[in-house]
From TrEMBL:
Lineage, uppermost ranks: Bacteria, Pseudomonadati, Bacteroidota, Bacteroidia, Bacteroidales
SUPFAM superfamilies, sorted: Thiamin diphosphate-binding fold (THDP-binding), TK C-terminal domain-like
NCBIfam families: dxs (TIGR00204), PRK05444.2-2 (NF003933)
Protein name: 1-deoxy-D-xylulose-5-phosphate synthase
Keyword Transferase attached: yes
Domain Transketolase-like pyrimidine-binding, residue spans: 323-488
Organism: Candidatus Enterocola intestinipullorum
Residues annotated as binding Mg(2+): D149, N178
Length: 634
């Protein structure tokens, strides 16, 4: 390793990096690039984004005194080189693994991680808060927010920008513009950034004027803001181009720079680091830089799984031929759209991730990728529904949290026919604490007018998607997990209506009734098979709907069985099991109820199987709970 990584092996922390000669930095960047490719070839993670941000990361840690100076990353897909340079190179092979390091920045893991970074668009607001706190505490340190152009479509990013010049701060915002988030970014902002430039003549004039006034003692906060407004007003005289959105908000703008020229980045960062007031440095980068397959097809190499680092051949294993739930959604949606011209698809920047790209390829005028803007996606869907369309709005469970008010205010109150397709529901695995789809049952089931369903398998998902577009059946939220289904035949099968609020008894039993919701019911089936002779004592019911819940089935269960076990892939507090308990409490029914699900904790990263096992939610854990429950009631 020392021969292959001559410079990288000399660096444990940024203090070591800052001892290097500036002309050595390009070689270091290439070593980091090869290190990331070698590591991720065998231990999958977010490849393309991290390859595109290497030079920026090296320049930031070289110029700024981290961790005293704070770097706030947005999303965190681009932060692998940051982790490698901040004491985690030796354990980087544990990235995203159970009990290993997280795939995203997290202050609990390292003092170099200034803020949590899993969901997009929070960096400017968080960094502004840190910068203002430093100003109030009279701490003289630098704060940098690094945000990708895809994350700039998020409403929170604009809220932060709008507030940047209201309070005294010296925040530096670095816009890492690669014309790519996961899929190609959309909207007017993306087009705007593509053409945004600044005049060298204008930059020189303004920079010199600022320092002349500063040396003269004429740059207190009030006069500084007046100067900024004056400078913006005369930009059209000194510049060959009109003002830009950042300078319109009184945020000093520098750019565009080649984000892969580490020496130039170091020079510019040194030039602007001590400038007072908020500022934006706009750099252009290439997602997947230095690895030809990733540069050519960035969406497919965002998180490619295992691959050959030499040939670029991706290693895709699917020995059991089970379909991914996202593909069941994508193909079924396309079939439904062919039959019903009112159906449209909406996704916030997850076109390929949710498989809505299938419909996009055939019906581009009926699919809307709105960028990283979940709240807008829901309210946009509501507007479409208000005028007679049938929107299928696909949002990952943990991302849907950011659209909660929109679901209540803009969909549920008016009872608009919006189909919320809640992908990645339940434990999702290696993406970890910020991405686990743990909360959607709890936060959706309390909303009036909203139906909440969860399919047991692929065919049930297909039928629920069909049922959702029938008159009177929406608004409805259909939650399903990440990854493979149960192996149930579904492709080409006729679509059948599912009776809303109707559970299905899957197995008879004498003593205990297991009530499951969603895909985790397949683990229940396996668990019962592990009970041997006691299997006959356990009945299994696939509830299918959390709301409306099948109260007739619950009442029948309470009359026949000694105990109930509820099983869900979601939080226990306020979840499906809570709904069962509430029904029995409201009716005064006395029956023992035991619940299996996610306890009152945030779930870290690992494989889905590892996490389900640790939480007692796999077949082995459910079987153990059933055995203990049988002993209790015997």
């Amino acid at each position: 390793m020392e021969n292959k990584y001559k410079f990288l092996t000399q660096i444990e922390f940024p203090d070591d990096l800052r001892k290097m000669e500036q002309e050595q930095l390009p070689s270091l960047c290439e070593e980091i690039r090869h290190f990331i490719i070698d590591q991720l070839a065998n231990n999958p993670g977010h490849l393309a984004s991290s390859l595109g941000a290497i030079e920026l990361t090296v320049a930031l840690h070289y110029v700024f005194n981290t961790p005293t100076d704070r770097i706030v990353w947005d999303v965190g897909h681009q932060a692998y080189s940051h982790k490698i340079l901040t004491g985690r190179r030796a354990v980087f092979n544990t990235n995203r693994k159970y009990k290993g390091i997280s795939g995203f920045p997290n202050p609990r893991e390292s003092k170099y991680d200034s803020f949590i970074a899993g969901h997009a668009s929070n960096s400017i607001s968080a960094a502004l808060g840190i910068s203002v706190a430093d100003y109030m505490n009279d701490d003289d340190r630098k704060v940098i927010a690094v945000i990708g152009d895809g994350a700039m479509t998020g409403g929170l990013a604009f809220e932060g920008l709008n507030n940047v010049c209201v309070h005294p701060n010296n925040l530096l915002i670095i816009l890492n513009d690669n014309n790519m988030s996961i899929d190609k970014p959309v909207g007017g902002l993306s087009d705007y950034l593509m053409h945004l430039t600044t005049s060298k003549k204008y930059n020189t004039l303004r920079f010199k004027s600022y320092h002349v006034l500063k040396r003269a003692g004429l740059m207190n906060d009030r006069k500084k803001n007046a100067f900024l407004r004056f400078a913006n007003s005369v930009k059209s005289i000194a510049s060959d181009s009109p003002g830009n959105i950042f300078e319109g908000l009184n945020i000093r703008y520098f750019g565009q720079l080649d984000g892969h020229d580490v020496v130039q980045l170091v020079r510019v960062l040194r030039d602007i680091k001590d400038l007072e007031g908020p500022k934006v440095l706009h750099i252009r980068t290439i997602k997947g830089k230095g690895f030809a397959p990733a540069e050519k097809s960035a969406p497919q190499w965002h998180a490619p799984g295992q691959f050959d680092p030499v040939t670029g051949r991706r290693i895709i294993e699917n020995a059991d031929n089970c379909s991914l739930y996202q593909d069941v959604f994508g193909k079924t949606l396309l079939e439904l759209a062919r039959q019903n011209p009112k159906i449209v698809g909406i996704t916030p920047a997850m076109l390929s991730g949710c498989s809505m790209n299938m419909m996009m390829a055939e019906m581009p005028d009926r699919v809307f990728d709105v960028g990283i803007a979940e709240g807008h996606a829901v309210t946009f869907s509501a507007g479409l529904a208000k005028e007679g369309m049938l929107p299928y709005c696909n949002i990952y469970s943990s991302f849907l949290q950011r659209a909660y008010d929109n679901i209540i205010h803009d969909v549920a109150i008016l009872k608009l026919p919006v189909v919320l397709c809640v992908d990645r529901a339940g434990v999702v695995g290696a993406d970890g604490v910020t991405h686990q789809g743990a909360f959607d049952i709890a936060y959706l089931r309390c909303i009036p007018n909203l139906t909440l369903a969860a399919p047991l398998n692929e065919y049930e998902l297909r039928n629920m998607l069909y049922t959702a577009q029938l008159p009177g059946n929406s608004p409805i939220a259909i939650r399903y997990p990440r990854g493979k289904g149960a192996g149930e035949k579904w492709a080409g099968m006729p679509m059948e209506a599912v009776e809303i609020g109707k559970a299905v008894k899957m197995k008879e039993g004498s003593d205990i009734a297991v009530l499951s919701i969603g895909h985790i019911g397949n683990a229940v089936n396996k668990a019962i098979g592990m009970l041997g002779d006691d299997a006959d004592k356990v009945a299994w019911i696939n509830m299918r709907f959390v709301k409306p819940i099948d109260t007739k089935m619950l009442d029948a269960v309470s009359r026949k069985f000694k105990a109930v076990l509820t099983v869900e892939d979601g939080v226990l507090q306020g979840g499906f099991g809570s709904a069962v308990l509430e029904h029995y409490a409201d009716k005064g029914t006395r029956i023992m109820v035991k619940r299996v699900g996610i306890p009152d904790t945030f779930v870290e990263h690992g494989t889905v199987n590892e996490l389900h096992h640790a939480l007692g939610m796999d077949a082995e854990g459910i079987a153990k709970t059933l055995k203990n429950l049988l002993k209790t009631i015997s």
